[in-house]
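Predict both folds.
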Amino acid sequence: MTATDPASTPPARAPVADAPETPEPEADTAALAPAPPVGLWNIANILTVSRLLLVPVFAFLLLHDGGRETGWRLAAALVFMIASFTDRLDGELARKRGLITDFGKIADPIADKALMGTALVSLSALGELWWWVTVVILVRELGITLLRFWVIRYGVIAASRGGKLKTLLQALAIWISVLPLAAVPGGAWLGWIGSVIMGAALVVTVVTGADYVVKAVRLRRGAGTGTGAA
C-alpha cells in the first residue's frame, strides 16, 4: 500500500454556515383594509342641501313686490351668489376628500338645475328675460339629464370644459340680471354686458348640448358593438 503524501492532501473545508433567512415583509394591513364608508351627512352633501334650500329663499326675494324693491333684489343677488359658490365648493370637497356618495351624485345636479331654472323662470315672469331663452336652456338641461340616465349603464361622460364654461356664463348672466340695474351706477352698461353674456351662454349651452348627445350616442353604440362581439 502506498502511503499518502500529507502535502498533497487538500485541506478540509470549513463548514459553511447557513445564510440567515430574510424575513418576508409583513403585509400592510392598513392598506389592505377596506376604506370606511362615506357618511351621508358630510360637508359636501350639506352644502348641496343648503343650496337646494336657498332656492325658494332666492325666488321669494327676487319676486317680492314684482321685483321692484332695490333692497330685495340686492338680497336675492347675494343669495344667488352664495348658492352658486356652493355649487363649485361642494364638488371640489367631494373629490379632494373622497366624499362622493350616491346621494350627492343625484342631489347635486338637482340643486344646480333647481337654482338655474328658478332664476330663469323668475326673470322671464318679471319680463326681464325672453321666454324662448328660458325654454331653450331648460329643455337642454332636462334633455341632458334624461340622456345621462339613458347611457349610465354603459359609462359616464366626463364634464367638458365647454360644460363648465356654460355654467359659469349662465351664473354670471343671471346674477347681473338679478341686480337692480336701475339703482346701480352704470346699470345700463352693466345690463348690456349681461345681455351679451347671456347670449354667449345660450350659444355655449346649445353647442355643448349637441356635443353631449353625439358622445352619448357613440358611447351607447360602442357598448352595443362590444356586447355583440363578445
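Second protein follows, with its predicted C-alpha cells after the sequence.
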Amino acid sequence: MKKIFTLAMMMVMTISAYASMSYKTAKNEALFLSDKMAYELNLTAAQYEAVYEINLDYLMSVNGRNDAYGTWWKRRNTDLKYVLTVWQYERFMDMSYFYRPLTWKNGSWTFNIYSHYSNKNHFYKARPNAYASYKGGNNKKSDRFYADKKVDKPASTPTAKHGNNKTDNKPNRHIAQNSNNNKGKKTSHFR
C-alpha cells in the first residue's frame, strides 16, 4: 500500500511539473508583462498589440522547466527583435525581468516581473485589443510571422521618458499608483 501511495505521489508531481499554465493565467500574465514593457520601452500602440501576442504565445507554449529558456523563449525573443527598434531591444535585453520573464522554482512558475512591479493591480495602459480577441498561435504559424508584419515603431530614441534614457541602464523604479495624481483612480483591469 505504501508503494502504491508513493508511486501515485510521484506521478502527480511529474504531471504537475510538466503541465502548461492555463489560458487564463497566460493571458493575465502576458497582459501584466506587456503593460510594463509598453511603459518602460515606450511602445507604440501597434508594438503593444504585437508584444502582447508574442508574450501570450510564449507563456502558452511553455510546458515545463526546459521550455522556460528553450525553443519558445528563443522564438519570443526573435519575434520581439522584429517588433522593437534597436534601442528598445537593447534596453529589453538589459532588463532581466523582461528578457527572462519566467523561472521554474520549487516545482512551479515564478514570474520575474513581480520582483520589479509588486502591485499586480496597477496598469499603465488600457488593455490591447488583442486581449479580447487573440487566442494564441502566431508563433506556430511561421518563425517569420512578425518579421513579415509591419508594426509602427517610434521615430527616435526618447530623450528622458520615465526618467531613463538610452545610456541609463538602471530600470525605472517609479510606479504611477504611488503618485498623488492617481489617488482614487481605478488602475486595475481585473476588477
